[in-house]
Design goal:
The structure is a homodimer. By secondary structure, the first copy, chain A, is α+β, with helices and mostly antiparallel strands. In chain A, 50% of the residues lie in helices and 23% in strands. Chain A is built from 9 helices and 8 strands. Chain A has a 4-stranded antiparallel sheet with strand order 1-8-3-6. The first copy, chain A, has a 4-stranded antiparallel sheet with strand order 2-7-4-5. In chain A, helix 4 packs across helix 5 (119-145) and helix 8 packs across helix 9 (179-186). The first copy, chain A, is globular, with a radius of gyration of 17 Å. The A-B interface holds A 60, 62-63, 68, 70, 82-83, 86-87, 92, 122-123, 125-126, 129-130, 132-134, 136-137, 139-141, 143-145, 176 and B 60, 62-63, 68, 70, 82-83, 86-87, 92, 122-123, 125-126, 129-130, 132-134, 136-137, 139-141, 143-145, 176. Chain A binds a DNA duplex through residues 147-149, 167-169, 177-184, 187.
DNA sequence: AGCGTTTTTTGATGTAGGTCAATGCACAGC
DNA sequence: GCTGTGCATTGACCTACATCAAAAAACGCT
């Protein structure tokens, strides 16, 4: 049951089998239907997710009412609304299932408990933060240097599966263009 | 000599006096003149900085030859070209002194050595990563939800000193507008 | 299968901010 | 103090993308 998760953990940091068993003990299964919210704006994010099957996103809604997708996680991967999870403050972001999704969940409390129980877990968390940082950095680079078309083409090159998997509406909000514009970009 | 640095470290993570002494031992002073580069694109970033006096920035140059400023650090603060520092890969970013600047420098090797020597250092590094992540996140939010004017007004509200301290050229590249546009925004 | 809702596409129009160009200004070097 | 080089300002024009609107297609529910 925890094999996928163990594989991903091992890929990120070299835990031994005993550590993996200890760690995965804290993960509980959870199922969510498509469009269900795992977190609403204003709630404190107290869960960290492994996506076994399916797909979730984090997004927020700006003053004009437009959805802005920050991050999409498809199986197998890990993540959460990191800003709120880190700060324990109410989240600006929503977390939403984009498909019927099977998750493994570790609570904030357990996550930080592991920080003390397993030395390597600190390293794991460092890696998670480093990856999150690098991702954001690349996103900023794209936003300030590329046109909408170039951002689309880049994603098409680097993650074509994502374009297939997401609706135009979600994809547009992820690329930070309007869906009308994305529709036009695609037909070029 | 290390008092400012110790103060900042203590503010971020609660080290005791003995730990602070042990940590600051690894920091070496360094002076740079205005406009000098601490890191060029293509070099691996192997230093982490505390700014005692002065001001530095990280920036990159896009395909059109435009400078894009990612982050500005004024005394007292800490930072580096984090992506390269983390990955040990050649940096996409430059680090440049915006004024004559006094630094305290810890090497990448010593930085990671402290990870093993002082348990609390891992927590410190986590905090640094968390802060860096949150900062990037806020930057993205600004880029995708605010107009140029709104971004300028926000900075004026949250960090007016920075606007005074930076040239229009640097400020423009930090806000991701052309300097002509910034000039017009300021006169409104 | 059929109907309402949501998503996608297409067209016409608007606009924030970029681009190009010219002028004025400030300060670093001699 | 003068001079050159880069910085700031202003104006005219342009373009990528947003906005608004309406039709067409796809999806989900009973």
């Amino acid at each position: 049951m925890f094999n996928q998760l163990k594989g991903l953990l091992k890929y990120i940091t070299d835990f031994d089998e005993q550590q993996l068993t200890e760690i995965t003990k804290h993960f509980k299964p959870k199922s969510v239907k498509k469009n269900a919210l795992l977190l609403s704006q204003g709630q404190v994010c107290t869960e960290f997710y492994f996506i076994e099957k399916g797909c979730i996103r984090t997004y927020f809604i700006d003053k004009e009412g437009n959805e802005k997708t920050r991050y999409v996680m498809c199986n197998p991967s890990i993540g959460t609304a990191l800003t709120s999870f880190i700060s324990k403050k109410p989240s600006f972001e929503f977390i939403e299932a984009l498909e019927d999704t099977e998750l493994l969940v570790i609570s904030h409390a357990d996550f930080y408990k592991l920080n003390n129980q397993i030395t390597q877990w600190k390293v794991f968390y460092q890696r998670v933060l480093e990856m999150a940082y690098s991702f954001q950095n690349k996103k900023i680079e794209g936003l300030v240097t590329l046109t909408a078309k170039q951002r689309y083409d880049l994603l098409l090159k680097e993650n074509p599966a994502l374009i297939q998997r997401l609706s135009n509406k979600i994809l547009a909000s992820y690329l930070d263009v309007r869906q009308e514009t994305l529709s036009r970009l695609k037909s070029k």
